[in-house]
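Can anyone check this?
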Amino acid sequence: MPEISRFFGIVIHMFVEPGGRHHRAHFHARYQDAAGVYTIDEIELVAGGLPRPQHRLVLAWAELHQRELLADWEALQTGEPAATIEPLR
């Protein structure tokens, strides 16, 4: 699972879905023992969860980088590597 960004203890990953798309474009965020799945077309949490402060950071980061997230999703689906996306600072 490629890591595409890391900031404030939050790690952002995106899975490859071989053999075709099975889900909406999404990414995974992990913070300590918590994990959440966020959709990209409409930035929203669809599974799991993070503590409120980290959840808000992920939402802000994803809004800033939505186009890059979609580009990474498309790249991974076609067998290309995902690009690293700048973290929040």
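Reply from J.R.: I decoded it. The first strand starts at residue 3 and ends at 7.
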